[in-house]
Write a structure and sequence with these properties.
A four-stranded antiparallel β-sheet has the order 1-4-2-3. The chain has three helices and four strands.
Length: about 120
């Protein structure tokens, strides 16, 4: 069974983000909702190369997905690679294109040859 390997799900609001995402760090996140059986349905995956807390707050009031999951990353590169893996594993409907790599990098997607 595929796993996001993230903490959560939690309510997507600024108070909960501050309570759960307590470090300034690169990281990954998934936005979604639960189905009738309580399973988290991945609607969108993303990352922050610097501060996952701040990036999640950008989504508050900008999405109809009421829940989030997150994980910290050890570096922007590991965040990029995890975002690519989650994108390919879950094919979230909110992601309309492959994750972009940061400007000035030549990082490769671990799952495909788009880069």
């Amino acid at each position: 069974m595929l796993s996001l390997s993230m903490n959560g799900p939690y309510k997507l609001d600024k108070e909960t983000i501050d309570a759960k995402v307590t470090r300034t760090s690169p990281g990954n996140y998934a936005l979604g909702k639960k189905n009738d059986k309580g399973t988290f349905l991945v609607g969108y995956v993303g990352r922050s190369d610097e501060d996952v807390n701040s990036r999640l707050k950008d989504w508050v009031d900008e999405t109809r997905r009421p829940l989030f999951k997150f994980s910290y990353a050890t570096s922007p590169k590991t965040a990029f690679e995890k975002e690519c893996n989650n994108y390919h594993d879950f094919n979230p409907p909110g992601n309309t294109s492959h994750p972009a790599r940061p400007a000035g990098t030549n990082w490769k997607c671990p799952k495909c040859s788009i880069f």
